[in-house]
Each structure stands twice: as C-alpha cells, then as structure tokens.
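Re: that backbone. Tokens:
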C-alpha cells in the first residue's frame, strides 16, 4: 500500500510541476522581406540538397537493379 501511495504522489507531483515548466518562446518574426530582411522562407539553399538526394537515390536504385540481375543470372545457372 505504501508503494502505491508513493507512486501516486510522485506522478501527481510530476504532473503538477510539468505545467509550470514552460519552454522558451519562439523567436520574433523576421522583418519585411521588401526592406532587405531576407526571403520569407529563410535563406537556406535547397538546390544542392536536392541534387545530392537524387544522386544517392539513383545510386541506390542502380545497386538494387545490379543485385537483381546478378540473382537472376545465378538462378538461371543453377
């Protein structure tokens, strides 16, 4: 019985204190993009990231095709 009371009190304390522990607020919004504050969506380039993902996808697909052809060739030889 003491164990159950201890667990319930611990859960109660954790629930009550978690509402008081708030995270840091969001940063202020960016300035006007027409006033030289930068683009609306941010300044991260996505062109090179897309190229990297496409090349990795092509390499992965090529490897899978090669493995499939290799397995088919071994199956025909048996």
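Recovered sequence:
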């Amino acid at each position: 019985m003491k164990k159950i009371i201890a667990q319930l009190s611990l859960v109660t304390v954790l629930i009550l204190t978690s509402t008081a522990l708030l995270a840091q607020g969001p940063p202020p919004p960016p300035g006007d993009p027409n006033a030289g504050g930068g683009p609306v969506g941010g300044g991260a380039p996505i062109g090179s990231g897309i190229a990297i993902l496409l090349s990795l996808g092509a390499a992965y697909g090529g490897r899978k095709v090669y493995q499939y052809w290799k397995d088919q060739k071994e199956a025909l030889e048996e």
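The CA atoms of residues 24 and 69 lie 55 Å apart. The chain has two helices and no strands.
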